[in-house]
Amino acid sequence: MKPCKFSIYIALISIAAVALSGCVSAPSRRSSGSSGIAQVEKPLNVSANLKFEDVPIPDGFSILRDQSFVFQNASLRVGMMRYAGRATAEQVMVFFKTQMAIYNWELQNVVEHVISEMYFSKADETCIIAIEPLTTKTIINVAVSPKAGTFSTGLGLGKGKF
Question: At 117, which CATH number?
Answer without folding.
Answer: 3.30.310
